[in-house]
Amino acid sequence: MKDSHGRTIDYLRISLTDRCNLRCIYCMPEDGVCSMSHEEILTLEEIEAIVRVAAELGFKHIRLTGGEPLVRKGVVDCVREIVNTPGIERVAMTTNGTLLPRMAKDLKEAGLSRVNISLDTLDPDQFRFITRRGELADTLVGIDAALEAGLNPVKVNAVVVRSLNQDLLAFAKLSLDRPLHVRFIEYMPVGESSGVDGCGWGPDDVIDSDDVVRIVSEQAEAEGLGPLIPQNEQAAEGWGPARYFAFEGAQGTVGVISPMSRHFCSECNRLRLTADGKLRPCLFSDLEYDVRTPVRAGDMEGVKAAIFEALGHKPEDHFDIVGTDRKMSQIGG
Ligand code: SAM
Ligand code: SF4
C-alpha cells in the first residue's frame, strides 16, 4: 500500500481502549478521560475484522496500544486472532507493564513477539508523581516478566522532559546486563500535556535527542563506561524511526526517537485506529475517518474504502500541525 506521497504504509497501530490503570500527568486527566461508552468502542471481533481487511491490503505489522491495552478484557485472545491473520507478520504491544507479571506468559504463547514498556523514571517518588497512582516496582517486575516470558525484543520507552530532570544514565545502564533496549523519546507538547489544563510542561521541556545522546555519553565516559557507539537498526530489530547506540559489550541498546527535532514524516509507515473506530492518518492531526460504521454493517468494501481514504489524506509532514484535540491515551501515542 502506498499513500499519496509514495510512502509504503504497512503498519497499523490499534488503540484497544481509552481506559488505563494509571493517570500519567501528560497523558490523562486525574479522573480519567471522559471514557467512551461501551457502544462506541469497537468490539474485539470488529477490530479483528478490520485487521483482516488491512492485511489483505498489505498491512503486515500491528501494534496494540491504548490507553492501557492489558486492561482490555479478552486481549490475549485478540492477540492470538491477529497473529493468525494471513498476511500479518508481527504483532507488538505498547504497555505500561504493570499487568505483565500475570499476563506476559499468555501473551507470548498467543504469539505476541515484541513489547515496548513505557517507563519515564527510575525514582519511586517521581514515578508516583508522574503516574498519579502507580508504583515503580510494578513496572520493573513487568519488565522482568517480559524478559522471562521470552518476549523479544523488550524495549523500555522513556519520554524525556526537562522539568523532570531524569537520571538518563541510570536508564541507559539498564541495557548493560540484559537484552533491554532503552529508548529516549522527545516529549511532544500535545494532547493532555498542552494547554491550560495540562501538566504545565511546554515546548521548553523538549530536550533534543542529540543532546540526550551527548549527555548520556559524557556521563558514561566519566564513569568509565565508554561512549555510546552508533548501531544499525537491526541492533534492536527496529521497524520505526529510532536511531540506536550501544555501550561496548552491552547486551542491549540505547535508542533515541525524535518526533520534535527530526520529523521522520518522510519515513512514516503507519495508520492509527482509535478505540472508537476512527482511522487517523497522522498522530498530530485531528483528521479522522470512520471505519466503525462500515465494519458494524458487515460492509468490508466500506472498510477498505475508509482505509484508502485515510491513506489518501496522510499529510506529507506535520510541520504546520501543532496539536490535537484528542488526548494521547485516546490516540495510542
Ligand atoms: N498505556 C500504554 C503505555 O503507557 O505504554 C500505551 C499507551 S500510551 C498513550 C503510549 C505512549 O505514549 C507511552 O509511551 C507514553 O509515554 C507516550 N506518550 C503519551 N503522551 C506523550 C507525550 N505528550 N509526548 C510523548 N510521548 C507521550
Ligand atoms: Fe496510561 Fe500509558 Fe497514558 Fe500513562 S501513558 S496514562 S500508562 S495510557
Name the overall outline.
globular
Structural Rg: 19 Å
Which strand-content bin applies to the residues?
Answer: 15-25%
Would you report the number of β strands?
A: 12
Instruction: List the ligand species.
Output: S-adenosylmethionine, iron/sulfur cluster
Briefly note the structural class of the backbone. Answer: alpha/beta
Number of helices: 10
Main pleated sheet: 12 strands, mixed
Structural notes for this entry:
Helix content is 30%, strand content 17%. The protein is α/β, with parallel strands linked by helices and 333 residues long. It has a 12-stranded mixed beta sheet. Helix 1 (44-56) runs parallel beside helix 2 and helix 3 runs parallel beside helix 5. The protein is globular and about 60 Å long. The two termini are 23 Å apart. Bound molecules: S-adenosylmethionine and iron/sulfur cluster (SF4). Iron/sulfur cluster binds next to helix 10.
Gist of the model:
The protein is an alpha/beta fold and 333 residues long.
Key terms for this structure?
single chain, about 325 residues, alpha/beta, 10 helices, 12 strands, binds S-adenosylmethionine, binds iron/sulfur cluster
Describe how the helices and strands are arranged.
Layout: E1 11-15, H1 44-56, E2 61-65, H2 75-83, E3 90-95, H3 100-110, E4 114-118, H4 124-131, H5 136-149, E5 154-160, H6 168-177, E6 180-186, H7 209-222, E7 229-231, E8 243-246, E9 253-257, E10 270-273, E11 278-280, E12 289-290, H8 292-296, H9 300-312, H10 328-331
Parallel strand pairs: 1-2, 1-10, 2-3, 3-4, 4-5, 5-6, 6-9
Antiparallel strand pairs: 7-8, 8-9, 10-11, 11-12
Helix pairs in contact: 1-2, 1-9, 2-3, 3-5
Bound molecules: S-adenosylmethionine and iron/sulfur cluster.
Iron/sulfur cluster binds at residues 20, 22-24, 27-28, 66-68, 96, 118, 328-329.
